[in-house]
Design a protein that fits this description.
The protein contains two helices and eleven strands. By secondary structure, it is of the alpha+beta class. The chain has one domain.
Amino acid sequence: MKHPFNMTRRKWLMSSIGLLASAIAPSVFAQKYYRRIPLQYIASLASEGEKSGTGAETWGLWEVDPGPIGVWLRLYQILEKTNIAPAGWRFDIDDWWLDENGLIMKAPTFPMPAGQYYVTNGEDDMSLLTVEKPDAEGKQAWSLSDDKTIANVTHGPCRSSRYTPTGSSGSCSPKDADQKVFPLKPGDETPEVNGCDRQRYAVLIVFGLPVEK
């Protein structure tokens, strides 16, 4: 998500989230206490205007920021040889992820674990996200508090896409991605890659979990 060497941006984001939580705590945190956690990230397929719905079983969770442990596209040969990133995570040629900086990322955990998460866009909005347990068909309902939409709590600078082969195994490769488009400018999307289906995900920042009083 964040540039692995940009500690200033990381500290700014954590600081701004703390100030935001303090500023609007009465509305979002009414009736609940929460504990801060190291930032996590949710990959969501919900539409921008949705406030609740189903489909959270298609969402993923990065419990550890995937940016600092990612691998630059220009260093893809490291993954190509061993399928293991220097940070120890396993690369899957048939299911890989790119961020806005041109980093190949570790895949998030699927499906999204049921529970409650305080989420934010990292700027001026936050909400309590509730993800229900799977129903008999494996579907997971979700909802946001305080009348917020997915767009309200999507962190715009983060862009995350999942690439899978349109044809046979191994036909979708990071080596075919256009490195010249990175880092992406505001509003730009991750590139199409020959031989790949691309699925774009919204990114929500998780900064806290509710606790009982």
